[in-house]
TrEMBL record:
Keywords: Cell membrane, Membrane. NCBIfam families: membrane protein insertion efficiency factor YidD. Could be involved in insertion of integral membrane proteins into the membrane. It comes from the Bacteria. It holds the Pfam family YidD. InterPro entries: Membr_insert_effic_factor_YidD. The keyword Cell membrane applies. HAMAP family: UPF0161_YidD (MF_00386). This is Putative membrane protein insertion efficiency factor.
Length: 124
């Protein structure tokens, strides 16, 4: 089990973090929105407690939704996700969709309510 000559392996640092690490456009709205979510995570989140019924947590979901889809769409998705997190709401794994279907348009924000409402529901 020695090193093989000529087989140098690049060591990549492992990035562990609470929030989504994927690539996203750093527009002013997205940076503002994700910064507000991060500020909440660093300050108020500890006082609220670990009571989220979903994976990822609501703040992690909000961060990813805003980073992927912008402040307007991601903000609505996050708001509706938090509203589903009550005692009689949904639970389980609820991921942010990678892309949004064409029916999710900025001038009809109530449609974002349907995203993640039921496990296994398609977002198309």
């Amino acid at each position: 089990m020695g090193d093989h000559p000529g087989h140098a392996h690049a060591v990549r640092p492992i990035r562990h973090g609470r929030n989504w690490q994927g690539p996203w456009r750093k527009t002013p709205g997205r940076v503002l929105g994700t910064s507000l979510v991060r500020l909440y995570q660093l300050t108020l989140s500890g006082f609220v407690g670990n009571s989220c019924r979903h994976l990822p947590t609501c703040s992690e979901y909000a961060y990813e939704a805003i980073a992927r889809h912008g402040l307007w769409a991601g903000g609505w998705m996050a708001l509706f996700r938090v509203s589903r997190c009550g005692p009689f709401g949904t639970h389980g794994i609820d991921r942010v969709p990678e892309t949004l279907a064409q029916r999710y348009v900025w001038f009809m924000p109530w449609r974002y309510w349907r995203i993640g409402r039921k496990r296994g529901e398609s977002n198309d």
